[in-house]
């Protein structure tokens, strides 16, 4: 650390800093007992320590002249910062000590922090886990994103229905961010592109008559785990320029001219709340371009400041990772900046672009594949559309060289999808303009190269690679499960926090009765904590002797919360008939947000709540079955949920969940998975062994074959249990006062065209649930499975994932076409 700074921080103790920030920075009377101001003062105290290391980290990276990677993502689902900073800086004990004189415990102060919910679900949380791993591995990686004024909406449940409330997370300011107005960038929209002759007599293009918006960066420190490294997450906020429309101004419409500035500030107003679906709204494209252009200008300005206009080394020193198609417009924007702003020729610009850009695909779902209308795009970004047409023309001539006369293939592979309303296929732009394209689990990558991207794989197989997702063990084990964490430290040493393969050492203890007893006591304590959350948020009592069966994730038909509800209804029906043979008492917990415009997902929430109400109010079922829907699922609630879970529900239709990461958080915390052979479930099962995973359902291949002759009516006819469940649903038993509301869900189950084939997996799912009951009944058997799940979860650390990005994509020999 910088010597002066280090000395300054040593000279003032944490207690003194805390008091100083409380009374001087925030201007409060000494200890007026406000947890809110105490949180703020503590955040500033911790931030001071981060800032000192931050500067050091920048200097170190600069001296090393290493390649800098920029992780571009429209989403960063960060959650809380304080707890993570205390863990990574090892400040928890001194802070607890300092708080003693304030007669206040750390947990209470931490509750004051609002989640930074700048993401929808898995994709955004992955970006957050990656930042933690990059800092811990001391890699020069900067996150670039948007500073939404409103993050992911808050969810309330009213009469069983989801109600969305705005998330004004910046309401009380954000003590973790530092505004950097000196690095403000100008972003252009609309106008037109024209050619002109430059000073050398060369014909060039320029983008004129544009409407400009400013991008102002706010930096957030990202500390590594106890290693002195602090990386950066840079979030852009949109701001109006100070230029006015002079004619309007002079015509006396001063207030109108000022009001028009609102438009500019709209860009980063709100996060789009759609997970895995796109609606082609023009504001969304504005956000995407705003992020791409601001971030690229930032990186190029830094380059030019030291290297001038010599870009020969640029690709050796810079790389970009595109988190899904959302920021892929960056490929065209980098071409534009290099050619139009820095006078680089097409060929050189293309080599630079394709050797710096890398694209991560996150889904095979057709509704999630972004395609922008050529008209809309050309209106807003006319110069970029020209560049995309040129990229496409050159690319298609390569396709024609490789497959002469194959017109079909050219149409299939064209970046522009022709038709009444031609559209730009952003995923194809991502592939053509990158040196690396990766999927996020082995099955997902295989399906990409054999299906969706097959033509591209045949053209450039070397570009494609797999990077199975991971989650950070700091937040998802060390922080969220302190009891288990302490037991691990004592048993196998503390190395696991940064070297998760060490968890394998637990395998030796799987049959150690004394260890198993302690492991299970910890699970009990975590279940009690989860039960308290359920009691507070749902008013339902969970008894810790029951199986805690949990499905929390975005609500989506492909994730099949509906299949889970059908099983709950079957249990209910059996209990009504006093058929308890082989059953173990269960608490079933659901949680997750539905996109506000996704009617079926919202109806699934309503069904869960109605079924829960009927079950929970029947006193005969009290000791057998409880069902809740925990509202407002978030990173912070997951930190309580995953340590207290016995059974992790990962039941998507095979081939539809790209990876999943919730499955990994549960596994680390000793939950056993009931799941299909989908996404990373396959790798989880491989790691832990088939005896320690409850497998059910059709495989991805079987799903596709079965689709041709899928007959749900036939299935229901021969399955008594399912018939009974359908009968209860259709009789209106769960919606006595709201006749017919579940008809769309019933129709979906009975539909031979049901894309998610819920009925096909029902029996196999129910059988697997019976095996869960059988195993859970024997505490020693369950303890063994649970321990082995934690023990084998090492490869699902995002440290492993990021080491692979580092070795295969970021610091490998780059161009692969
Ligand atoms: C991990 C996580 C997710 C992703 O869950 P999946 O089960 O992989 O879909 C979504 N939301 C939050 C808050 C998470 O922490």
UniProtKB/TrEMBL annotation:
Catalyzed reactions: [(1->4)-alpha-D-glucosyl](n) + phosphate = [(1->4)-alpha-D-glucosyl](n-1) + alpha-D-glucose 1-phosphate
- On this chain, the residues bearing N6-(pyridoxal phosphate)lysine are 665
Q: What class of enzyme is it?
A: transferase
Question: What top-level branch of life does the organism fall under?
Answer: Bacteria
For this protein, the Enzyme Commission number is 2.4.1.1
Q: Which Pfam families match?
A: Phosphorylase
Q: Which GO terms describe its biological process?
A: glycogen catabolic process
Q: Which GO terms describe its molecular function?
A: glycogen phosphorylase activity; pyridoxal phosphate binding
Q: PROSITE patterns under this entry?
A: PHOSPHORYLASE
Cofactors (names): pyridoxal 5'-phosphate
Record's keyword terms, sorted: Allosteric enzyme, Carbohydrate metabolism, Glycosyltransferase, Pyridoxal phosphate, Transferase
InterPro entries noted in UniProt: Glycg_phsphrylas (IPR011833), Glyco_trans_35 (IPR000811), Pyridoxal_P_attach_site (IPR035090)
Q: Which GO terms describe its cellular component?
A: cytoplasm
Q: Which family does it belong to?
A: Belongs to the glycogen phosphorylase family.
Function, in words: Phosphorylase is an important allosteric enzyme in carbohydrate metabolism. Enzymes from different sources differ in their regulatory mechanisms and in their natural substrates. However, all known phosphorylases share catalytic and structural properties.
What is the protein name for this chain?
A: Alpha-1,4 glucan phosphorylase
Q: State the organism of origin.
A: Kineobactrum sediminis
Q: What is the lineage of its organism?
A: Bacteria, Pseudomonadati, Pseudomonadota, Gammaproteobacteria, Cellvibrionales
């Amino acid at each position: 650390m910088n010597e002066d700074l280090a000395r300054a921080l040593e000279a003032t103790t944490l207690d003194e800093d805390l008091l100083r920030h409380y009374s001087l920075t925030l201007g409060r009377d000494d200890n007026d007992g406000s947890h809110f101001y105490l949180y703020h003062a503590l955040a500033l105290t911790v931030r001071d320590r981060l800032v000192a290391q931050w500067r050091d980290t920048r200097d170190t990276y600069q001296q090393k002249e290493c390649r800098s990677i920029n992780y571009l993502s429209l989403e960063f689902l960060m959650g809380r910062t304080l707890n993570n900073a205390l863990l990574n800086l090892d400040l928890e004990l001194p802070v607890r000590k300092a708080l003693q004189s304030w007669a206040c415990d750390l947990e209470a102060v931490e509750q004051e922090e609002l989640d930074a919910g700048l993401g929808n679900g898995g994709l955004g949380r992955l970006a957050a886990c990656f930042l933690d791993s990059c800092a811990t591995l001391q890699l020069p990686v900067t996150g670039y994103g948007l500073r939404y004024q409103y993050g992911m909406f808050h969810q309330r449940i009213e009469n069983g229905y989801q109600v969305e409330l705005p998330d004004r997370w910046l309401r009380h300011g954000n003590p973790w961010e530092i505004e950097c107005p000196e690095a403000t960038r100008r972003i252009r929209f609309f106008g037109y592109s024209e050619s002109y002759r430059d000073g050398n007599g060369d014909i060039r293009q320029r983008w004129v008559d544009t409407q400009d918006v400013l991008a102002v960066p706010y930096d957030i420190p990202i500390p590594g785990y106890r290693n002195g490294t602090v990386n950066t997450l840079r979030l852009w906020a949109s701001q109006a320029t100070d230029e006015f429309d002079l004619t309007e101004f002079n015509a006396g419409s001063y207030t109108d001219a000022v009001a028009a500035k609102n438009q500019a500030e709209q860009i980063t107003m709100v996060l789009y709340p759609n997970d895995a679906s796109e609606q082609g709204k023009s504001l969304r494209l504005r956000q995407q371009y705003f992020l791409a252009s601001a971030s690229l200008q930032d990186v190029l300005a830094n380059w030019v400041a030291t290297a001038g206009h010599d870009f020969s080394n640029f690709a050796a020193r810079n790389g970009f990772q595109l988190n899904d198609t959302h920021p892929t417009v960056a490929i065209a924007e980098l071409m534009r900046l290099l050619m139009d702003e820095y006078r680089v020729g097409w060929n050189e610009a293309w080599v630079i672009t394709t050797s710096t850009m890398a694209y991560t695909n996150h889904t095979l779902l057709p509704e999630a594949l972004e395609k922008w209308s050529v008209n809309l795009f050309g209106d807003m970004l006319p110069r970029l559309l020209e560049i995309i047409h040129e990229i496409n023309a050159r690319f298609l001539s390569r396709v024609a060289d490789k497959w002469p006369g194959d017109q079909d293939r050219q149409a299939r592979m064209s970046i522009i999808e022709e038709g009444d309303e031609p559209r730009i296929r952003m995923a194809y732009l991502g592939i053509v303009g990158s040196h690396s394209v990766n999927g996020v689990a082995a099955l997902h990558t295989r399906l990409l190269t054999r299906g969706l991207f097959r033509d591209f794989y045949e053209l450039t197989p070397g570009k494609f690679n797999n990077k199975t997702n991971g989650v950070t063990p700091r937040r998802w084990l060390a922080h969220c499960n302190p009891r288990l964490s302490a037991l691990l430290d004592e048993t196998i040493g503390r190395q696991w926090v940064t070297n998760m393969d060490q968890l394998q050492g637990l395998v030796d203890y799987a049959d150690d009765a004394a260890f198993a007893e302690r492991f299970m006591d910890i699970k009990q304590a975590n279940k009690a904590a989860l039960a308290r959350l359920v009691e507070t948020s749902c008013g339902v009592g969970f008894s810790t002797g029951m199986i805690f069966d949990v499905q929390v994730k975005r609500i989506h038909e492909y994730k099949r919360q509906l299949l889970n509800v059908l099983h709950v209804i079957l249990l209910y029906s059996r209990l009504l008939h006093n058929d308890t043979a082989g059953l173990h008492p269960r608490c079933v917990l659901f949680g997750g947000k539905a996109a506000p415009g996704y009617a079926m997902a919202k109806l699934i929430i309503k069904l869960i709540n109605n079924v829960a109400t009927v079950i929970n109010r029947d006193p005969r079922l009290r000791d057998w079955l409880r069902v809740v829907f925990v509202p407002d699922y978030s990173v912070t609630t997951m930190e309580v949920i995953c340590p207290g879970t016995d059974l992790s529900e990962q039941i998507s239709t095979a081939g539809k969940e790209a990876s999943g990461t919730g499955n990994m958080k549960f596994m680390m915390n000793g939950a056993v998975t009931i799941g299909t052979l989908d996404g990373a479930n396959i790798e989880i099962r491989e790691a832990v062994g088939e005896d320690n995973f409850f497998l059910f359902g059709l495989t991805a291949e079987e799903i596709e074959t079965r689709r041709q002759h899928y007959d749900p009516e036939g299935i229901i006819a021969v399955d008594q249990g399912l018939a009974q469940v359908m009968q209860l649903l259709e009789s209106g038993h769960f919606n006595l006062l709201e006749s017919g509301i579940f008809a769309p869900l019933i129709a979906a189950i009975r539909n031979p065209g049901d894309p998610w084939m819920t009925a096909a997996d029902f029996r196999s799912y129910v059988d697997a649930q019976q095996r869960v009951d059988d195993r859970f009944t024997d505490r020693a058997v369950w303890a063994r499975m649970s321990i082995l799940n934690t023990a084998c979860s090492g490869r699902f650390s995002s440290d492993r994932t990021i080491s692979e990005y580092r070795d295969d994509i970021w610091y490998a020999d780059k161009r692969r076409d």
